[in-house]
Amino acid sequence: MAEQVLEIDRSTYDHYNKDNLIYKAKPGLTKEIVEEISNQKKEPEWMLKKRLKAFEIFQKMPLPTWGPNLKDLDLNEIIYFQRPNAKNNATKWEDVPEDIKKTFDRLGIPEAEKKALAGAGAQYESDVVYHNLKKEWEDQGVIFLDCDEALRQHEDLVKKYFMTSCVPVTLHKFSALHAAVWSGGTFIYVPPKVKVTMPLQAYFRMNAKKGGQFEHTLIIIDKDAKVEYIEGCSAPQYNVNSLHAGCVEIHVLEGARARYSSIENWSRNTYNLNTKRAIVQKNGVIEWINGNMGSHITMLYPTSVLVGEYAKSDFLGVAFAGKGQDQDTGTKVYHLAKNTTSTVRSKSIAKDGGITSYRGLISIKKGAKNCKSHVECDALMVDNISKSNTFPYMDVKEKDVELGHEATVGKISDEQVFYLMSRGLSQEQASQMIVSGFIEPIVKALPLEYAVELNRLIEMEMEGSLG
Predict the structure, then answer these.
(1) Could you state, in order of their start, the residue ranges of all structural domains in the chain?
(2) Could you report the per-residue pLDDT of 264-273, keeping only the tens digit for each?
(3) How far is CA 341 from CA 22, 160, 306, 358, in A?
């Protein structure tokens, strides 16, 4: 069968608005721009000092050389701070400027909020333009703000947790960059024993050419509490590079449970160099559900640090790489206490010469007895020109543990397609069915509207793959 290469129909994501900004920094990063970000936000002195220290660290640290090639990312061309002409933190969609509101309408955010969410936030460029929490959760003490507003209203709480133990500024070059220029994002605090039964959601949209987005997500789930949080991300396609270097910090306190779901569909000129980490205390649970579809290059490894006995981490991830894409994704788990458990299930799909890589680490420290970890990596190849890599690393310092790793690589074969066509399906329907079955575990774990979106994105990517 002859193979075709068709571009995905990204019309929902690739529309863009003319710039309507009240501030736009010059390309490149200087100490003056870092100071200007802090000044415009009227931040306390300690945050400015943290930013400036991070800027110094960023300047000294090299680009990573162990993963995808970043040589075409010119950090001097990126615009690190730009503010839309919009009221910050509107609590009614009617108060959001019409052009920006239409963008989020097309992405389905207001409709999802009405039907299935406890609260929603929307960020456009460097500012959060909409944020709202339903009253029933506000009355129970849940805090759901953007990070800038949380710094004003809950400074002591932010100072205690912001890029301290979970994501140190010195972790790598892009965590330092993030600490220097972060803007917007999400802050969630759930009080003890409060279980938020509807998801909270934020959507981050990058519109301008050569833009950078650096939202900060800080989530604190107090003792025996529970929350589910969903992030979505997208940007229009340009012929110049953009950069996304956000940061997610999740603190799961004793007996608490957090589920973090993310569908990232950045355009194929975006470098997605994101940092996500969680610290989990005794009997706490962190669940990661990740879908990576877009971007030119992604380097993303959600990390769980299990510091309390019986802490648990579950990771489910799917990455899709098409022409010109390099998806380097995976997860890291540090077992620092006895009786901790982790499961990793990673799936990847590559077509049209795309590259997918699973890069993971399971670390079990000396004395962390009776830990259990199981890793399962499955790759599906749609053609003979794509690539799939697996880089598992296991650092085990304790004998009394259970550890397993499985990896498979498969290809959509002519025989599979022929069999399904003999049952009345077209070639395209047959290939889509094979892929849908392959990613079913991830889809089942997502909220309904996100499962539908992920399936639809996969179907669009698969159109014309065979036949």
Answers:
(1) 12-413, 414-467
(2) 777 788 899 9
(3) 49, 27, 9, 20
